[in-house]
Amino acid sequence: MQVLVLLLWTGSLLGHSSCQNVAGSSEGSLAPDSTGEPVEEEDPFFKVPVNKLAAAVSNFGYDLYRLKSSASPTANVLLSPLSVATALSALSLGAEQRTESTIHRALYYDLISNPDIHSTYKELLATVTAPQKNLKSASRIVFEKKLRIKSSFVSPLEKAYGTRPRILTGNPRVDLQEINNWVHAQMKGKIARSTREVPSEVSILLLGVAYFKGQWVTKFDTRKTSLQDFHLDEERTVRVPMMSDSKAILRYGLDSDLNCKIAQLPLSGSMSIIFFLPLKVTQNLTLIEESLTSEFIHDIDRELKTIQAVLSIPKLKLSYEGEVTKSIQEMKLQSLFESPDFTKITGKPIKLTQVEHKAGFEWNEDGAGTAPSPDLQPAHLTFPLEYHLNQPFIFVLRDTDTGALLFIGKILDPRGT
Predict the structure, then answer these.
(1) 3-state DSSP call for residue 305?
(2) 105-158 pLDDT tens trace
């Protein structure tokens, strides 16, 4: 009976199938075009160039996440797709038309009419990495040793993306140390130094790194954190530190199509985390994953209702280091690894060899304040609502200002990756 009441109250959060993988085509009212046929009006949010670009690269991020998740069905997944998208977007500056179009399609740039995507990207990066956001994100292009690079590539790269390419020395130890020093400087020491050797046969290596430590708008009481059961599946249970709040103010909805309860918690710096929690304990989160697009998440943000609930969340500290090369190849980008045209970079034939990603993510009880914001007035419920993240779930870290996907995770076991 409770589910029926909630469903009537929130409505079913629909619209995700109709806007799958379309940058900036969120649902709007229908208006007739010149032929008299009804056409969908664009959501005003996506008419802002930086928001539309954020939607495009975020849809790339959801694609990348799906591929990584399907390749790791029984393991946690943690990605900051924006850092990888940034590296690819920067690389496209050095691509001739055929190769540029290949990259731009993967990033959904072909669906947006923006005469200067790269300057808009600069604005996006400045917004999401502003000091109050607590996000550190950086990307880099590394080239094979002794490569002569055209200054006509380096200058716009530095202007739009704030980075300079690195040319390898050919000494694996020296190159690893230099890359580690760069990561350490960019992430302010928040990500551990890598022990992975730089491959000897690199032509182009893309590197995307990111770190985030969330700060809730309302902090949790550390005295209420305790070891509680987390159900790995229907049979196995582990004990993990769970943060609790018996009177949490959050935004909530139930999606009957996806059979999941959705909750959104605000973070300082105009950011939020959206949680997708299946109604039944399961490690198969495919149905939810297939629905994730920028437009669906934007629709959710508009649909959720503010309520008061009994809330529990596992403390989380996760990291990822590894290749996303195979996933990138599967995104119709195989040609970048075979015979791309990067003659805007150098006269020598070069191709993409490897895409590396390093990410760190954590949240604990830390928050900006002890009381909910006074402008958050929860809806009155006739029954107590509980939201316990005590089984496998998906989370999305989203920048409220631009709609950009900053981090995404599949948490099957909160004890670590």
Answers:
(1) strand
(2) 999 999 998 779 999 999 999 999 999 999 999 999 999 999 999 999 999 999
Residue intervals in the chain for CATH 2.30.39.10: 2-14+216-315+367-411
Could you please state the CATH topology (level 3) that the domain comprising 72-214+318-362 is classified under. Answer: Antithrombin; Chain I, domain 2 (3.30.497)
Model pLDDT for residues 160-181, shown as the tens digit of each residue: 999 999 999 999 999 999 999 9
| CATH 3.30.497.10 in the chain, residue ranges | 72-214+318-362
Amino acid at 149: I
Q: Model pTM?
A: 0.90
Write down the pLDDT at residue 45.
93
Q: What angle do CA 289, 295, 299 make, to 5 degrees?
A: 95
Query: What distance in Å separates the CA atoms of residue 389 and residue 411, rounded to the nearest whole number?
Result: 10
- How far is 370 from 363, CA to CA, in rounded Å? 16
CA distance linking residue 229 with residue 237, whole number of Å: 6
Say if CB 322 and CB 356 are below 8 A apart.
yes
Of 61, 49, 46, whose CA–CA distance to 106 is shortest?
61
Tokens coding 338: 């075979």
pLDDT tens sequence across 46-75: 999 999 999 999 999 999 999 999 999 999
* The pair of three-digit structure tokens given for residue 391, joined into one six-digit string: 């089984």
The beta strand positions in 134-232, using DSSP E, are 135-143, 166-167, 204-213, 216-218, 226-231
The amino acid that residue 98 corresponds to is R
Would you identify the CATH topology of the domain 2-14+216-315+367-411?
A: Alpha-1-antitrypsin; domain 1 (2.30.39)
Query: How crowded is residue 177: how many other Cβ atoms within 10 Å of its Cβ?
Result: 13
Q: Exposed, middle or buried by CB within 10 Å (0-12, 13-18, 19+), for 349?
A: exposed
Q: How many C-alpha atoms does 68 have within 13 Å on its Cβ side?
A: 24
Torsion 300-81-390-222 (CA) sign:
negative
Q: Which residues pair with 369 in a beta bridge?
A: 218
Tokens for 18? 């109709």
Question: pLDDT band for position 24 (50/70/90)?
Answer: very low
